[in-house]
Every structure is written in C-alpha cells, then in structure tokens.
Amino acid sequence: MTCKCFKCSGSGLEYNDAHPREKCFARKCPACAGKGFIPPASVKCFKCRGSGLEYNDAHPREKCFASKCSACSGKGYIPPASIKCFKCRGCGLEFSDLHPHEKFFAHKCAACSGKGYLAGAAPSATSPTPSPVNIITGFHQTSVSAAAAILKAQRFQPGSGGIAGGGIYFALNAKDTNQKAQRHGVVLRARVDVGRSKIMTHFDPSLTGSRLADEGFDSVFLPTGDGVNLSANEYVVFDTRRITDIKRV
C-alpha cells in the first residue's frame, strides 16, 4: 500500500507563497512527481517534518529563504523503518551549551551525521516480528464481517480513534469485550506482545504509535481506577506485528 505524500498532503502540487491557494501558480510536487503518493512504509522526515525544507533562522516561515532539507533531499520522507535519532531527537544538530537554541552555533550531530534519523531494517514478508518481551492473551470483539477479514489475513488494522488514540484495543478476558467493543458479533483471541507498557491514568485520544515509541514504550495499559474510570483493564498496541495467533473464541 502506498503512502500519501507528506510534502503536498496528497494533492500532487506545490503552491506558490504569493498565491497559496491558486492552482494556476502551483507546480508539480517534486517529492512525489505530482502523483500525490510515495513508496510504501515511507517515514516522514524528522528533520523537516515532511516539508522537504530547512528554514532560515532569520526567516523561519518563508520558503524563498529556505533550502532543501539535507536529511531527505527535499522529498519530505526517509527510508522505511528509520527511527528518530536519540541524541539530537531528529533535528540533526548538536547545540552549544552557551547557545542552546541557536543553530548558528550548533554542529552536525555525530550520531546520525546530521540526518536526524537512524536507519533500520525495512520490513518484508520474511522479516521476523519483534522478539517477544511480554506476551499476554488479549481479547477483542468486532463485527462478523470484520472478524472474518482479520482471521483470513491474520492481521488487525489499527482503529481511527479511541480513548488512547487509534490503536488496537484488547481486554484480558472475553466477557469484558462486551462492554468495551464498538462493534459486536465475534470475540477474537490473540497472543499480544505488549512489550514495555505505558500505564496511563488519563485518556489521551490524540496518542499515536510514533509518539508512544518516542517515549520509549510499545503499548499502553489502561487500569481500572487511578482516575481512568474504566470498568475493566485493557491494553492498546499500535504495531500490528505484535499481534499473532489470532483465533475465534
């Protein structure tokens, strides 16, 4: 499956600053060659955040003074499975202690060579799933048609939203899914590698898998009580490779 182009947001066009909404002044997006999509599993560039540009400190919002992003060569995306550099946190720079916020005094990050990311192994059909760290048996209820598709593909699809973002939610027993499920019909059981879980004591619908990973966690655990006001414990994962051995209860 292809990804929407980060630079043009799928429009295939790059607009002129002077005429930001007029197509007659726009040009073909150089990142996706005007197609609006980019290669599968591409990762948004951490350094330019998908814009493909590095802005000038003196003119931080003006494209005419910006240069092509050195990390992604102006494309707005980087190789699949790339991870944010832990040392520079994606900016590609190491700042001076005397001038901690001024790029002029900063130098290229030694860990990532200024790219802002560290290369990872691209996923493939033969790539192993992450090594099991903390396996639970999770239960998830959905509609009959959705369950059939999940069982056939042996793969869940992340949701579009929820109390902890658009992840995949699992109860710890089949009965608890009755009060948690958005759609009812079939209860599925699976082995879920929850890895290192973040214990959340409040709802956060804006949470994403990438933000969770940046915080050093693999999943979310929502306990009863602790201000969460849930009737039963549940886990949330975002990486579908952590879910295996899916069966109907």
TrEMBL record:
Protein name in UniProt: Uncharacterized protein
Gene3D superfamilies, per database record: 3.90.228.10, Heat shock protein DnaJ, cysteine-rich domain (2.10.230.10)
Spell out the InterPro entries in the cross-references.
Answer: HSP_DnaJ_Cys-rich_dom_sf
The organism named in the record is Kipferlia bialata
